[in-house]
Amino acid sequence: MYEASVGVFTPFLGNLSDLLDRGSAHAEARKIDPSILLNMRLCPNMYSLKQQVSEANRHVILASALLARRDPLELPASETDISGLKSRIKQVVEFVESLPRAEIDGAADREVVFTFKNGNQRKFTGRSLLLTFSAPQFFFHVTTAYDILRHAGVELAKKDFLGPPRA
Question: What is the pLDDT of residues 139-148, one digit of tens each?
Answer without folding.
Answer: 999 999 999 9
